[in-house]
């Protein structure tokens, strides 16, 4: 697994639970190190050991923590670059949803050796969608649930999200747009602030 993903897991745990709890997780995983390097590649076994240790040490269901991590990736100032990448997907939440099909390609433009599983958005009725998350990363759909929730807040829209099970080796997230402009969204400028 790409070090950038493992580094994101590390940043989430350190920010949410504290650095001492992260050391407890890495000690439990028995990796022999506690810091992930963002541009290295790690084995799937090492990444799985971290996820298993997180669930055991932090005593929370992994699915819940990964969803919280998805929210962290969008909402935390440490990860503003990812929020910017996602906001380039559209001027409103629906346009953002439709841009998710291209997200793995946009990510690869930013980090050429980072491959995310494919996403496919299907509109099932006006304001109702299902996002099909292909397998390839453990917990990918859970992280995407958090990303979708945080992006709805970012745009100021009210949505209902539900993990709808699996379809042909993929996990499905149901998205219902309840109200646009429900709250004031976060500001977003096309040009990055260089100061």
UniProtKB/TrEMBL annotation:
Family annotation (InterPro entries): H-NOX_domain_sf, Heme_NO-bd, NO_sig/Golgi_transp_ligand-bd
Gene3D superfamilies: H-NOX domain
Family matches, as SUPFAM superfamilies: Ligand-binding domain in the NO signalling and Golgi transport
Recorded GO MF terms: heme binding
Pfam families: HNOB
Domain Heme NO-binding per the UniProt entry, residue ranges: 2-158
Protein name per its UniProtKB record: Heme NO-binding protein
Naturally occurring in which organism (per UniProt): Parasedimentitalea maritima
